Amino acid sequence: MTQWSSNARERRIVAVVVTFNRLGLLQRLLARLAEVEGLAHVLVLDNASTDGTGEWLASRAATGATPGLLARSLPTNRGGAGGFHDGLAWAIDLDADLVWLMDDDGVPDADSLERLLRHDGDLDFWGPAVLAEHDPTRLCFPIRLPGGSRVVHDMASVEEAAHEGLIRDVVIPFNGVLVTAALVDRIGLPREEFFIWGDDVEYLWRAREAGARCATVVDAHFLHPATDDLGTPMMFGRTTFNHSPSDLKHYCMARNNVVNLRDYRGGLHATAFVLKTFWFYTFTRPSLARLRLSVSAMRAGLRSDFTGHERFLR
Predict the structure, then answer these.
(1) 286-to-83, 154, 160 alpha-carbon distances in Å
(2) What CA–CA distance (Å, rounded) separates 243 from 231?
(3) What pLDDT, on a 0 to 100 scale, did the predictor assign at position 192?
(4) pLDDT of 219-272, one tens digit each?
């Protein structure tokens, strides 16, 4: 039987899932969420999928096959950023005290929420360790440990570095993370104009800047497909670069990352990212086309023009 604190049992918890054209993975995730006790609602934001997701969700909600399921199909694809912006607002409108945020391609362990809720009241924005689905001993996304430059890639290193079961100030949004309604009231919603890439980092940095208590709960787990295009080595292995073969992903990454670094870390960090990008596509993976795309994306970000990615959606 699930053991929660009396405070956690009194909380109204709403899950928010953002999906786009991954019906099979969405079905797997919703089957898992149906097994989780204590959820008032499961809200699904469908980003105008074309694979039958909207129709399946409508039929599922109508029959009550998934308890608490509510679904909205957006008229256009607004990316993860737009989906989480709308989904979080929807959850708050439904009087959620805690909102459990996740993409459609991951799946929490059956006891993940229970383990997260053990820290309710002590944290404002916290989540599970995000593990590579094909090898749960490895992290899906490397973690830079607080207070230094050490980056860890495996669960053994995370467990060794944890203090009282937590890695403080580190969260991997939006992969099974909990956020309090009180924090949303303080810092607002994710930046919907980012579309994809960097909206999660921006939300975490904004939360930290507001003094939010953030952490990764080491014994709570969320499985996620490996992202092999992240962390490509460069500069003779001294650092890595988030290279993606997708022009859409790269454009949004370059645009949004330079904005995040400028706004939260300052001009020197933003300039360093520009130079790193030029190095990568000049020496590591030479590509004049990628250099031009990077320049246009970064210029757009610095001009606060968040429409350029739309050309890749046509």
Answers:
(1) 34, 31, 39
(2) 7
(3) 98
(4) 999 999 986 556 788 888 788 899 999 999 999 999 999 999 999 999 999 999
Cβ(95)–Cβ(212) under 8 Å? no
**Which of 237, 176, 240, 179 minimizes the C-alpha distance to 206?**
179
Q: Is the dihedral of CA 150, 230, 269, 200 positive or negative?
A: negative
Average of pLDDT values for 140-144? 88
**Mean pLDDT across the stretch 77-86?**
97
DSSP structure string for the chain: -----HHHHHS-EEEEEEESS-HHHHHHHHHHHTT-TTEEEEEEEE-S-SSSHHHHHHHHHHHT-STTEEEEE-SS--HHHHHHHHHHHHHHHTT-SEEEEEETT-EE-TTHHHHHHTTBTTBSEEEEEEEETTEEEEEEEEEEPTTSS-EEEEHHHHHHH-BTTEEET---TTEEEEEEHHHHHHH----GGG-SSSHHHHHHHHHHHTT--EEEEEEEEEEE---TTSSEEETTTTEEE---S-HHHHHHHHHHHHHHIIIII-HHHHHHHHHHHHHIIIIIS--HHHHHHHHHHHHHHHTT---GGGGGG-
**For residue 231, what pLDDT is reported?**
73
Q: Which two three-digit tokens encode residue 19?
A: 């999906």
Q: Specify the pLDDT at position 300.
A: 98
Q: Is 156 exposed, middle or buried (0-12, 13-18, 19+ CB in 10 A)?
A: exposed
184 pLDDT higher than 50:
yes
Q: How far is it, in rounded angstroms, from Cα 99 to Cα 181?
A: 7
Q: Please give the model's pTM, rounded to 2 decimal places.
A: 0.94
Which residues partner with 15 through β-bridges? 42, 100
- Position of tokens 């001993």? 137
Tell me, what's the pLDDT at 2?
42
Spatial distance between the Cα atoms of 185 and 59, rounded to a whole number of angstroms = 34
Q: Distance from CA of residue 74 to its chain's centroid?
A: 19
Residue 6: is its pLDDT beyond 50? no
